[in-house]
Structures are given as structure tokens and as C-alpha cells.
Amino acid sequence: MTESTRSTEPRQADMPDWEKRFRAPRVSLPDWAEDAPHRSLFVSNATGTYELYAWDRETGEQRQVTHRANGTTDGVLSPDGAWIWWFDDKDGDEFGVWRRRAFDAPLVPGEVDEPAVPGLDPSYPAGLAIGRDGRTAVVGRSTDDDGSTIHVARAGEAPVEIYRHRESAGVGDLSHDGSLIAVEHTEHGDAMHSALRVLRPDGSAVAELDDTEGGTVELGLEVLGFAPVDGDGRLLIGHQRRGRWEPLVWDVATGAQTDLGLDLPGDVAAEWYPDGSGLLIAHSFEARSDLWRYDLATGELTEVPTPPGTVSGATARPDGTVEYLWSSAAEPSVVRSTTGEIVLDPPGEKSPGSVPVEDVWVEGPGGRVHALVQKPAGATGPLPTVFEIHGGPTWHDSDSFAAGPAAWVDHGYAVVRVNYRGSTGYGREWTDALKHRVGLIELEDIAAVRDWAVASGLADPARLILTGGSWGGYLTLLGVGTQPDAWALGIAAVPVADYVTAYHDEMEALKAMDRTLLGGTPEEVPERFEASSPLTYVDAVKVPVYISAGVNDPRCPIRQIDNYVSRLAAREAVHEVYRYDAGHGSLVVDERIKQVRLELDFAERHLGR
Fold this sequence. Notes:
The protein is of the alpha+beta class. Helix 2 runs antiparallel to helix 3 (about 405-410). The longest helix is centred in the last third of the chain and has 19 residues, at about 590-605.
């Protein structure tokens, strides 16, 4: 390395903490091969772009296995550990094909991996399950023309279509012996609540399961995985029969259902222990999470010790230990083991921490609203305050580490994150409340928390920023239009801005979701789309607006954003737009840092500190 080259590289010692957090090395929870558990696959930003890495635990070797300008995060390790499958789209548009490479193959610059399933045209992915025989895969696909299709692919043979429907569907899992395929589908037209079907590899149906109330599908089901034992047809599924997500074991052959009846509040998910004797329980409640082991023979529930905070993913290893990805608002994420060891510790300067989060409960029009608050250490209000709104909408903010909010705190802002109606983790009724008055419902909850923030003395009402990405970006634009006197700035990343145009341009699975949320298409319920579209209220916007957008985004497409921006420009409203060459966000660290820097700069220029 020459001196001139060294001088142009960023030096972490000279960086502010907020930038160090984005550049710090981080990894995902490693996936591992069922029949070769020493082989693992994980995602890391070690090169400055998020890519897939192979890890041989016996030798300790870790190797980068994908290298693309816009990064790669979608990968699956075959059960025998021989192959790595990864999804190859174009510049983040999420439309592409699965490719594969041998686990131990070196990465050769410029070399293109072979198509994993020759004969399947590009599509949006809709699930993937790889068989233990090393030659079979079940591939879910979605296109605007075909809707959802599922194919069985065997090495050396043309793929065979075994499922097709206009509504959204996807591959849930393939049984341990390859004889059963679990499918999640929404043939009933409710994209928020899936039903289940189990097929044989020839496409013939074995069993069906849906949950109904009054003849209408209103409760969701999800596939959590087949038992990891040959000849065992038990399928672990999630259900909502008691108003929250819980696991049960469904014997596909007999139809028997074993309800675990876990006495845990909040949402509960599960996965099998590798020997099939128990379940690893992931419990999420009021923005925090923990782990438990459920013994199937005795029904005993035993806590798996984890620090207070959020477990973002967990897996049980063949030796009975559990590995999990953990963080809190104050402490960066780390992959831990119940042995007490750090599973993966990437080299490089570690991320600085941040301040802990405080819980606030506010009475809203639909019930108590949970908000998470961070503020600079020792600061007293009223402070300039950022309402950072999560995406989804079926997601929730938690006591977990996030570099974006921490950057605002570093710059003297309080940060408030609201788990509005539609968020997960507070029961089915709270999540399912988003029907027909989409966007407006969430903003009612956000307004209630805003009023608390001002009345409590936390927030300066003249320096309130509404911001978010994806659905949070949508709520930002809708909020500055429908609540024009409530906010001082709007900063929206990859938002829905023109709901009608977005519907016509977005990927098929999201069209199905919008039909469920709004009760039909723009042609069938035009008044609902109009009431929920930021474009309807664009002329009421009074405050400066900043928008960032990926030009290849299939979820919040660029044309509908351009429509909104054109309306702002037509009346010379204060606004700035940043377009970048990627999809629904970026996997490139420098690009992420650039976007945060632009947002911070926009706020400082228009609001001061």
C-alpha cells in the first residue's frame, strides 16, 4: 500500500462516532448445514459492502463467496454443506435468479456462478427449500404475469411446476426425507393471513389447514419447519388463535394438533432442536425478547439465559448449545453462544455504543401506544426531537442497536420511535388494526405520542422532525400533508408517495398486500386510495421535505416518487431529492453513510441545533 493511497482512505480515528457505527464490522447469525454442521454461511460488511461469507468451523477459515457492486444478502446453505445458493438480482431490483457455488470454491473476480435451476426465468423470490439428497430443491417464484408459482427442481432434469395461483404464495419447508412440501398461500385473498397446504413432490395435496372466524380467513398461519427426523411428518407452525402468534405441532398424516399452551405474553415463535426432542422458543414482548427451551416429552419450559435487550435471531446447534444475535439500544450487536463465548468476532475497530432506551406508554385513540425514547446523556428538554418511524408496517421498533437513531442522538436530538397500530409484538388486534384507513390510523398514534413529547417537556414543538424509511417514509410524507402544523421537517427514505401509481408499479406480492389493507384495487376503492395517499395532501405541505429513493426499487417505485416531487416543485415548495442506483435501500456502507450525512445536513440547514 502506497502512502498516497493510505492518505485517501478514511481513518477511523478521525471519524465521528456515528460514522464509526456504520463502518464497524458486523455479521449476521450464521446459518449452518444440517448434515455438515461445521459448515456455516453468514453476511458481513467486512469489505464495505454486505456480502455472503462461508465459514468452515473445523479449520476456522472464513471466505467471501459473493462480490457484487450493490451487495448480496440472500443466501442458503444446502443441508449437506456442499453448495451455497444465492439470489442474483440487478442493482437491487429483487428480480432475478438463484445461482449456486461449491462451498469450498474460491471467489474468482469476474467469474459468474452457475444458475442453480436452469430453465427457470427471472422472478421475485418466494421461498426456497433444498433437499438433503443433494439434488432436489423446491423453488418459489412470483411475477406480475404468472402470480405465484412453485417448482420442484432436480439436478439434470427440467424443473416441474407443482403450484400456481394469482394470489401470493411461497415455499414454507421441505420435510426431512423430501416427501412433503409445506406451502403458505393466500388464495382466499387476504395477504395478511396465510393458510397452509402440504403437497407431495408431484403436486398432489396431502393436507390443508386454515383458521377461520365466521367463514372468513382472519387468522394467520405460518410454517416454522418440519421435524428434523426421517419419516416424521410433524410440522411446526405458528398460529394466532389466542390473539397473538404462538407455535403448535401439526401431525400432517393424522391431522392431530398439539397446542403448546405456553404461558408467555406477547408473540412466540419456535424452531426445532436438531434431534427433534424439543423446541427453541423465541419470545417477543413489548420491544424486548428472550429465549426458552420447550421439552416435547415433558412439556417443561426452561429459560435460555440471555442479557436484557433483543434477540434478533437464534439457532440450536447439534450439541444442544444455542447461538443468538443479540443487542440493546446501548450496545452493538454480537453473535453469542450459551457457552458464554462470542461466536463470531470480526476483526476491526468495534462500534461505539449509544445511550439506553426509555419506555413510554401514551393513551391513544386505539389504546395504549408504546414508544421508545433516546436522548443525549445529561440533556434536558425541550430538545430538537426526531420521530423516527419504522417500516413494515408489520414490524416493530425494539430495544436493539440501530446506527441511524444513534447518529441523531450524537447530534443533540432526542429520538422517539413509536410502535403504532399495525406493529407486531402487541397482539393480533393491534397488528390487524390497519384496514381501510391505512396510514391515517398510524398517524393518530404518532400524534398522541407527539403531544406527550411536547407536554412532557422532552420535545421543542418548533424543532420536530418526522422521518422514516419505507412504510416509515410513507407515513412521513402522509404526516407532513395531513398534520402540516405538527412538524418542522419531513425526511422520507424510499417512501410510498403516490399510492395509486405505487400500486400499479410495485411487485405483485405488495399489490396483494395493498388490496388486503385497503379492501380492493384503486379502481375498486378509489376513495380509500385517495384518502391514504400522500399525493392527495401534497399542496398542504408547509415544511421543507427531503426524499431519498432507489431508482431500481420494486417496493416503492421511482415513478410515484417523481409524481410527488413534481407537485412540490410546481408550487416551489422547499424540498430536496436524492436518487441513488440501488433498490429498496443500499447494502453499500459508504452509500448508507452518505445518505445519513445528507439527512443530518438537511436538518441542520433548515432547523439548526
